[in-house]
Amino acid sequence: MLAIILIIFIVALFARFEYKIKGPGRFIAKVEWTLVQIEQDKLQSNLLFQGDKRNDQINLFHFDRPDYVRLSMTPEIVIGGAIEAGQVAVKLVSTEDEIRLAALRGELEEANASLAALTTGAKEAFQKEVEKSLQYAKAELAAYEPVLKRQKALFERQLISEQELETTQAQYDLYKINVSVQEARLQAAKTGEKAERIAVIQAEVASIAQRLEIFYEKLEAQSIKCPIDGIIVQPNRSLGELVRVCGLDSMVIEMPVKGSKISSVKPGMTLTAYVSGSRKNIIKTKISSIDHNATLINLQPMYLVRALVANDDNSIYNGMTGYMEISTGKVSVLQLLEKAWANFHFNK
After folding, report:
1. pLDDT tens-place string over residues 45-92
2. Shortest CA distance to 148 belongs to which of 180, 171, 181?
3. Helix (H) / strand (E) containing 154
4. How large is the angle between the packed helices 124-156 and 162-191, nearest 10 degrees?
5. Of 67, 128, 144, which is closest to residue 99 (Cα–Cα)?
6. What distances in angstroms separate CA 184 from CA 107, 119, 175, 190, 212, one per listed residue?
7. Sheet-wide strand order for 230-233
8. Coil, strand, or helix at residue 298?
């Protein structure tokens, strides 16, 4: 019996066993973009890279304008929806720009009406149609004048904000512009243009069209575009986030490891992830980094171990969890006992 015990002891002394560190972990997007309203008139665009050493890329958008600027989310911005790099996420809408755009469109329509009439004038049916449009435009303007007067009275009594009054005034100005446009169309339809004026009018149309195109480019530059491909997730409103997009092509595994075991973990070791709720049941990858800035959890220091994972089929989403195993290599029975004692002593 003593001989058998001695043999078992000798075998155990020289035998080596695979030592694995096990525990829960989570998946986060490697690349994440957020649009944050840091002040009433300032936005901040943050492009965050997880799991590597690249710094955050921060762009500031300052809105220092004399007129009222509004933020307008594009209809495609819905939680859970996909978004592509370069796609417009937010548009900046200015009351001043809306009025200017309406004026340019009116000028272009007026010039085109003059060209349409040419040297002979428009037909009687067309003139009647333009007269009806003018009558309708004047009726709209007349109907809106009491609204503007009422809003001015409310503003003087401090019952509405200056922004509400500006919006009403802007709508009234648009109605006035429309009346001017229709009057010009009617005049052009009745009188026509002389032959020698055709070239001048054509040049005017081209000039207005060019100015309008430049103005459209200006409006396009006031749009904020998403810099990455990804999926739109719920923004953190308490932090002022307006839009939050998580990339899906690569994910980062974050696994907390106890302070008593972190000395056994090294970059390059194999990490096996058993993904919860995914078509990928098992993923094997290599540890890329260890965050030695400890976090106390239940009064025990925990260290974050990270590993990069390709997500070509987009089956893993930001925030998913799983069960993780780190293969640290083979150890002897004495080393296993030493690690068990250290863990026990650490947890006391």
Report:
1. 888 887 554 444 445 555 555 556 666 777 777 888 888 888 888 887
2. 171
3. helix 124-156
4. 160
5. 67
6. 9, 16, 14, 10, 19
7. 57-62, 42-49, 31-39, 241-246, 230-233, 82-83
8. coil
